[in-house]
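As a warm-up, study this chain.
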Amino acid sequence: RAREPTDPIQARLAEFSAREEPMSLEEIELSQAFYERIILPFFNRIGRLASRFTPQATLETARRKLEMAGNPMQMDPAFFLAMRSVLAVVFGGLLAVVFATTGRNWAQGLAVSALFMGIGFYFPDLWLTGRIKRRQKGIFRAMPDALDLLTICVEAGLGFDAAMAKVHEKWDNDLALELGRVIQEIRLGKLRRDALRDMSERLGVAELTSFVAAVIQSEQLGVSMAKVLRIQSDQMRVRRRQMAEEEAHKLPVKMVFPIGLLIFPSLLIILLGPAAMLMLRSPLGGLLR
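Now compare it with the structure written out below.
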């Protein structure tokens, strides 16, 4: 079953009702994790300060990337931008302190500190990009099975909203969670086509965008939803098979560097090492020396 997002207010009320004596404010604060008590408020404060001097376009770009990554650790754009600056200062400052205390060359210390400042500044972007790619790949792999379940539910007589609710109920992955969010937005009054468009924009998967466009078009033109879902499911399976074949064809190229740098030198040492030692011990070895 798909995991439901926990409501902190309901969790706090349940904890309060389970206790015989009410908790004090200090006990409530100490019951939270170190990340929630110290690290998160620190970065949020820096983020609010930095957001005053950050262009709105940069904040929107960061917000979109966080949504595509599934918003790990529930970060806001200001928090993410502040984390980049803090990591750059920490990485560069630590190296500068090390070079200052050891008394080494200042020019070399400044160069290495600047290098690590750049690494600390761009590391959150690289980490977030990796999260986005992994999430998109998982959604792409889950789409054919999800479309099959949607097709079966619609052909059995359920509506499209109820079919999406079934996928959200049966599975526990990013696609099921996003479909559950679409259901919640529809229940709050948003149009289904708008909720589906927002989902495709949040995920950034081309195949999902094509599926959403087909569903919206079939709804507007009155085409059978079951037929559209069946066609989309077949196309997604063909696309997933093509992607698997493409990855298999890339393997020989990816294996060239490990073989050339790791396996082939080891084989040369094992095969030619004894012959080289015998040659050095022979009279010819004296000429080579």
